[in-house]
Specification:
Blueprint lengths: L8 E2 L3 E2 L9 E2 L3 E4 L2 E3 L10 E6 L5 E5 L2 E5 L4 E4 L10 E6 L5 E5 L4 E5 L2 E4 L3 H8 L4 E6 L5 E5 L3 E4 L7 E2 L15 E4 L6 E3 L5 E3 L15 E6 L4 E6 L2 E6 L2 E7 L4 E6 L5 E5 L4 E4 L5 E5 L7 E6 L5 E5 L4 E4 L4 E5 L10 E5 L2 E5 L4 E6 L4 E7 L4 E7 L5 E5 L2 E4 L5 E5 L7 E4 L5 E4 L3 E5 L5 E6 L5 E6 L5 E5 L2 E6 L2 E4 L1 H4 L5 E6 L5 E5 L4 E4 L4 E4 L10 E6 L5 E6 L2 E7 L3 E7 L12 E5 L2 E6 L2 E6 L11 E8 L2 E3 L5 E2 L6 E7 L9 E7 L2 E7 L3 E4 L5 E10 L10 E7 L7 H66 L2 H21 L5 E2 H18 L4 E7 L8 E3 L5 H11 L7 E9 L3 E8 L3 H7 ...
Parallel strand pairs: 62-68, 70-72
Antiparallel strand pairs: 1-41, 2-37, 3-36, 4-32, 5-31, 6-7, 7-8, 8-9, 10-11, 11-12, 12-13, 14-15, 15-16, 16-17, 18-21, 19-20, 21-22, 22-23, 23-24, 25-26, 26-27, 27-28, 29-30, 30-31, 32-59, 33-34, 34-35, 35-36, 37-38, 38-39, 39-40, 41-42, 42-43, 43-44, 45-46, 46-47, 47-48, 49-50, 50-51, 51-52, ...
Amino acid sequence: MLNHFACSKCCGSLAFVLLLGLVFPFNVAAQYPARRQYRSMDGLPSSEVYSTLQDKRGYMWFATDAGVSRFDGYRFTNFSTDHGLSENVIFQLLEDREGRIWCRGMLGTISYLWENSIHKLPVSDELQRAFNGDLSVGMGVDADGTVWISGSLHLFRIPPPYTSFTELRTPNQYRLHTYGATKGHYSPGQGFSLLTKDQSQIPLPPVLGPPNNWLGRFFCHYHDTLKQRHFMAIANTLFLVRENVVKQLYTAPEAILDIEIDPEDRIWLCLHGKGCVVLSDDFSPVEEIRFPVAERFGAVYRDRSDGMWLTTLGSGVYYIPDMHHRQFSLPEPFGPQVNNLVPVGGKICASGYSRAIFLEDTAARKPIEILGIPEQEISSGTGAANGELLVFSKKTYRFRQQMEVFSLLQVESPMKYCASTASGLVYTSGLSYLFRVDKDFGFQHVISLHNQRIQCLYGGRGDTLWIGCTEGLFSYQDDTLIDWQDRLGRRTRINDIAQLTGGELVLGTQTEGLLLFDHRRTRAFTKQDGLSSNLCRSLLAIPGTNRVWVGTNNGICLLACGRTVQIVRTQHSAGGLPLGEIKKMLFASGRLWLASDVGAIVTDTAYQEQQHAFPLYLDSVRLGARTIAVNNPDLPYDSNTIDFHFTGLWYRHAGAIEYRYRLLGLDSNWMSTRERVVHFQSLLPGQYIFELRAFSPDGKSYSALQTVHLSIALPFWKRWWFLGGLIFLTGVMIYAWARNRIRRARRNAEFRQQLAETEIKALRAQMNPHFIFNAINSIQHIMRTGDRETAGRYLSDFSGLLRNVLEQSKSEVITVQHELETLQLYLKIEQLRFGNRFRWEIETAPDLDVTNILITPMLLQPFVENALRHGLTGKTQDGLLRISIRSDPEFLTCVVEDNGIGRAAAAKHGTAQRSRGMQIVRERLEMMRKQYGGQPGFLIEDLYDIHGAPAGTRVTLRLAKYYLS
């Protein structure tokens, strides 16, 4: 079998654009650290950048020929002469202890930025005249705020308050051109010496010839505060100054513009030409950093997260997050995109859309050469153990170890994918057909999938070939094609296949993330489970483990696949790895190679990014269009729509920082966002605490917790004083309303009482004539009998009765005693009129105080009259009328009882006619109920003897009891 094709698999789509011809050699491919580039199109005021600075808060500052720019990882905030800057061409930036950013202009002008405002020194115009056309070359700021600025011929000292300056001269007329800064630049006049703070001089050795040859040379220095070393460069020579001793270290091929030390204690020298030279700890060069675009570097700077910033004089700023990610790109005219990686006998073959491949010696870790293929497209390739390379395109080429064309193999159709099984069988495919390649490079057509499009091939164990298609999974073995669609349980596009040590297949899909398939069941692992994306382009299983690398359109993930799938590591493009879509992955010499849209990326898998804490700032709190202070705790009630704006300064993950927040008082659950603003609306009045944190995508770096305490006031109509006032006002209104109602009720009650009294008086007035009429009839009857003596007594009693009735008619109530006296006079008259046929008795209870209990006048008289006229009239003798009054705790009970013939017998005799007096009594009792309350009433009972014969009538009258006092 073809065991010299010992490649696991190879898939990817490759197309080339190059001149037609045979195989052409080109310059080697460029290798450089993975980086990001910021230019004017990204927001910089200009792509010509001279220097950079990271302030104490963590913001990056850039000095350009169009002003100063501040960068927070998301956007650039630019300052120019339109904002008050002294001039637009700024060469140097410094930060003092107070946090002011000092800007040195080309013409010697100085200004500083403080709290987003630009301040120009009062002495700035006079200082510019003192330079007299000399260009500024250095600036420093002391701890006490004294500013030092130098030109090629001048050195000035400007103390606070910056209203005057003095010029400093050394004894030998040498000039110091930078003072008090960690980094700086020099441009000496007739000579050069290092001048310490006490103005003692440290002369430099004469390595450049006479001092007059130093004119126009470049000078810079760097102070290593950690190891107390001072590096200085004159022209292209690097010196070490320690304890007033100067030692020459290294001579660069070009002039040195800037010096920096990286996290691995290596010295970076920014050269006048293109690129940087990196020196090891023994000061020997270990690397050259050059980028594909021809450009001049201006400065190199290391930030506090160990990222390196390179400024250029035409291409903006390059940012290198770390040195553990390398990037290979093809020189012009090939272009950056790499789609395929093939190991070929200790070398790596990378190909892209350019009819070209470049090879790297994996042991030496450096590019070897580039080959050109005379075809418009290269589809795929595979390497052989003997160092040969098989390249598939519209035609198939076989290359020997020396990479010269060995033979051109004719194939019926263009090939797209290829793979070899564990037993050594080699297969290649087009869109929907599969070929087997024999040891003589013959192509045998084996199957066609007419309804499917092949997306990938994977050589499994034994002779099994796995085929991923647009709608499912197939296997081919012993000339048998098996469709696994039903067992897989879904129709999905499979982009790549890998196999774990236990035999379980890992399938990278187009839309459903990862599928783990063991021929019996399918497990899914998606973005919801932590995968960087559900679009999986490529897979790479680590031999001997159950770990697999997954390449997506949003970085790479290392997964540990056991009973559960766990994420071991994730790398995003924002984390320093300049990834596009990962088309292919392979291991070589302990490094992970990635084919992507931006070239071939090589990363050290053993490298673990260190945890860092990065700053997080709450930029503003906005109430609609109005911005308020962050520390403003009290907000009015109508400020219930609030926006929090914030920024996390973590340049490695710019744009990919995860912010987690919550608003205690509204919700205690943490929410996540990638945006830098959080919006809350329709908040209720109350106390709130806004909490915010920021995390890198891998969760290794984070910020401190930021909190903002807010208090939304109650609206005035819910304040205690308003509610109290409202309650008071309401109480006053209710009181006024109630008082008015009571007054009206009293008036109505008085009116009703007056009306009732009038009605009672009217009733009494109706009753009095009735009684008088009866009495006159009796007198008339007596007078007719001729008994003058009796008539005289009767008239005497009648006059007394009338007198009492007239007196009582003026009063609402009288005492029971007065009522009984009136009844006695009335009964005497009636007894005389009846010819003494009845006798009467009046009984009062012993405990009854008749002189103090009140009763309505003439109330009992109608009942007595009825007893006489209807009960006792038919009685010829032994008539008895008994009146008894007793007192209950609440009522006064009056009983009028006779032993007459009864109501039934009276009716037979025609004497039981309806009494007008009884009707008047009922109306008077109803008036009393309305006026005094209670339930006054009377009850009439018929009495019977032991034989059941009528024995009289009893009337029981119950009245409310009222006292005189």
